[in-house]
Amino acid sequence: MVQMKDSLKRFTSDSLICCLNACLDSDECVTFFHNEKNKECVMHSKTFIYSQPNTAEEGWKFYVNRDVTGRCPYPYLYYRRLDFCYSTSINTINRINFNNIKSICSETGGRLAAVESHMKEQFLLKQLADRPHLRIAIDGLKTGANTWTLEDGSKLTYFNWGPGEPQGGNQLCLELYEDNKIFDCPCSFSSPGVFLCEK
Question: Does residue 107 share a domain with residue 58?
Fold first, then answer.
């Protein structure tokens, strides 16, 4: 199996090592496919957690570009372009509860993923593109009028708000929701969703 659609780069590669080196040279490459028979390499910036490659052809093997420096211990992968570690296990929950979500991330030495820039927002959305639920819980707590902070106490300044957002009231947490925009939401409510941890 191989995924040609939405690849970063597709090229002829004499060997697996050449394909690996090309992936290592790219800040965006997270995974790649290599075919020894036809000498082809296909690089991607997603992990295929919720989807599978869409083309059945013989000879293809799939590889994940893992950090070996120890900066991102298992189950985390390193994304060089944004210089952060993210969990390869995306969690699906039946009921969003931010305290429970933060505890799950903490158990692996991480924290709930935050959206601090457009580039990071796009990266997270790409990783979660085929998710089973629309809602994505993200880090951010309302600590004052128009003031949002991250779990580490730093101020959140990037907001790609959905229409009419933020609504305020008891909606003190954040999620990526309709049209992949940021919405404020209650910190506990009975809707299913997904989340990703980072380190």
Answer: no
